[in-house]
Specification:
single chain, alpha+beta, Glutaredoxin, 4-stranded mixed β-sheet, 2 helices, 6 strands, globular
Amino acid sequence: MAETVELYTAAGCEFSAAAREDLEWRGVDFVEYDVEKDREAYERMLGITGGNRTVPVVVEEGKPVRVGWMGRGCFI
């Protein structure tokens, strides 16, 4: 069974919303973390991205497959 995708987002970030909508539309199982509200998720995201503070971040198997959305993102 495939590992669940992780989505790191921030409220009010239109690119986070677009990434969420894309995953939902494609029927991908994912867990979403709001890094502005969840400090542990924020720290985990920084470790995964090497300190990049741009959301959204899509992670599969513990590795970022996408930082930002369509070449854009929100810096937190």
